[in-house]
Amino acid sequence: MPQKRNDPLHGQQGFAMILVLCLGALFVALAAALVYAASLMLSNANRQLPEQDVYELAASFSDVLEQELLHYTGLNADGTANNDGSLGYFINNTYVRKGGIKNVYGEDTDHTFTLQAPAGVDELTVTLRKTLSEAYGETADESTSDSNILISYDIASNTDLQNLSEVMKSREQSYKENGLADYDITVTVKVTRDEESYAVTRKYRHTGKYQIYYTMDDGAGQWTFKDYQSGGTSPCLRFTNAASQEKSVYASGNTTLHMRYHIEDGAVYGCTFTRITSND
User: At 156, phi and psi to the nearest 5?
Assistant: First the structure.
């Protein structure tokens, strides 16, 4: 009986079968990995969609409030207060009047308002924070315990009344044209939906175009600077009040003039809002 020889073809078929099995196992493992990766991606996408939704809602509502602020000037064409019901009106005519420049609502500077949420939104809130403007020192030369004093002039130390009158006029004109940057207002819009929430925070600088007046020493009377009078041997500064009464201040006196701005209830003034920072 002849000796059985190794069959090369048979060996090749066995090797091919092993290779097929190995490749099949590899493809199965790869397919499982791809399925797992796809499930992770889908899970992340499903989680990101609500986050993106609440972000877009918060940003969109912030845009609406920003337009209300940036377009609000405080006054109508005839000089009366512009009560348009916007956020700008509320801040300019209510929010900045509460508390003095040194005592902003006492310790309570954050105020959160819950608004009627649109369909599909669980909660919509707006939080306001008011702080003394970083630019206040650039526009008000002296801050005192009396919140609306811009600067005080001691006549005994300013005997050159003509020069002082020019300084006073220049300051009044600057406040009239440029206003007083008094408060920075932070506006935070927070949207909550399906347990996802996002807050957009933007900060705006409020600049009031206030009317200027003066008080003298510790008196409460309000005076408007009229002019410098150089006639005679006793030059003076002349002031008038709402009753058209006139009062003169002489260099020989010990009067202290306090330049102030009207922010009391009932005062009408213009304003501007400027966006300075944002987190979106």
Answer: -60, -25
Tokens read off for 275: 């966006």
Region of residue 180 (left: phi > 0; alpha: psi -120 to 50; beta: else)? beta
Q: Find the angle CA(127)-CA(129)-CA(133) to the nearest 5 degrees.
A: 150
Token code pair at residue 66: 């920003």
| Encoded amino acid at 175, one letter | Y
Amino acid at 267: A
Q: Could you give the CA distance from residue 161 to residue 159 in angstroms, rounded to a whole number?
A: 6
Per-residue pLDDT of the chain (280 residues; tens, 9 = 90+): 445 455 554 555 555 555 445 545 544 554 454 444 445 444 454 455 567 888 888 999 999 999 999 999 999 999 898 999 999 998 998 888 765 544 444 445 678 888 888 888 889 999 999 888 877 765 555 444 456 888 999 998 887 999 999 999 999 998 888 899 988 999 999 999 888 899 999 999 999 998 999 999 999 999 999 999 987 778 999 999 999 999 999 988 889 999 998 887 778 899 999 999 888 7
DSSP 148: T
Q: Which of 187, 194, 201 is nearest to 52 (CA)?
A: 194
The span from the CA of 58 to the CA of 73, in Å, is 25
Q: How many residues does the chain have?
A: 280
